[in-house]
């Protein structure tokens, strides 16, 4: 396998939380020094390539793919498009899971949905519907996500307990933990439709 392509794949899947050199060293057989050189070369290549909209960003011991500053204005404009007509089902599902199970990590969301949620989390964050709320006391210290004050305002809620109940059988906190994605999305979709009709 091509090392650069492998790194790009892992960085893409890692999403906004990024991936550490230790994790890459554990996953790959090339050795730490070779991986570091490959990351540096990949960063240089991305910066120099005017046909690419992404660059490599290092924060602490993490690396992640981010969009280049030159495209900030068009990306901002994309996220200013009216909310109700442009949230994908993936974003709505992710938002529903966060709304009913917060605080929650990306990995936990991925496990519930069965697919990777980094893109949806980034879109929801840029639209100010969710925010980071510290880190979980677990290996890797993953980011915890919660809904934002803007989320409450947008959906006309004073507090989270005004969200539509899932079902009578799943009313307690313990039972909410086992609620499936279909129930979460159905209840949340009803709230969204109600908002659109007002």
From TrEMBL:
Keywords on record: Cell cycle, Cell division, Chromosome partition, Cytoplasm
One Gene Ontology CC term in the entry: cytoplasm
Compartment(s) where it occurs, according to its Swiss-Prot or TrEMBL record: Cytoplasm
Highest taxon listed in the record's lineage: Bacteria
HAMAP family hit by this protein: ScpB
Primary role: Participates in chromosomal partition during cell division. May act via the formation of a condensin-like complex containing Smc and ScpA that pull DNA away from mid-cell into both cell halves.
NCBIfam families reported for this sequence: SMC-Scp complex subunit ScpB (TIGR00281)
Name of this protein: Segregation and condensation protein B
Gene: scpB
């Amino acid at each position: 396998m091509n090392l650069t392509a492998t790194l790009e794949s892992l960085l893409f899947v890692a999403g906004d939380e990024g991936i550490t050199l230790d994790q890459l060293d554990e996953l790959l057989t090339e050795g730490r020094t070779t991986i570091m050189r490959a990351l540096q070369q990949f960063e240089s290549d991305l910066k120099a390539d005017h046909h690419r909209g992404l660059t490599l960003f290092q924060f602490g011991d993490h690396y992640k793919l981010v969009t280049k500053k030159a495209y900030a204005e068009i990306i901002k404009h994309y996220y200013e498009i009216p909310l109700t007509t442009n949230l994908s089902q993936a974003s709505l599902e992710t938002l529903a899971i966060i709304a009913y199970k917060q605080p929650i990590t990306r990995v936990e969301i991925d496990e519930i949905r069965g697919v990777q949620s980094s893109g949806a989390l980034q879109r929801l964050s840029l639209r100010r519907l969710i925010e980071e709320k510290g880190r979980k006391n677990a290996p890797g210290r993953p980011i915890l996500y919660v809904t934002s004050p803007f989320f409450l305002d947008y959906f006309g809620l004073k507090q989270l307990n005004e969200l539509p109940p899932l079902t009578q059988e799943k009313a307690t906190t313990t039972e909410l933990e086992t609620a499936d994605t279909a129930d979460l999305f159905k209840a949340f979709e009803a709230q969204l439709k109600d908002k659109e009709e007002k």
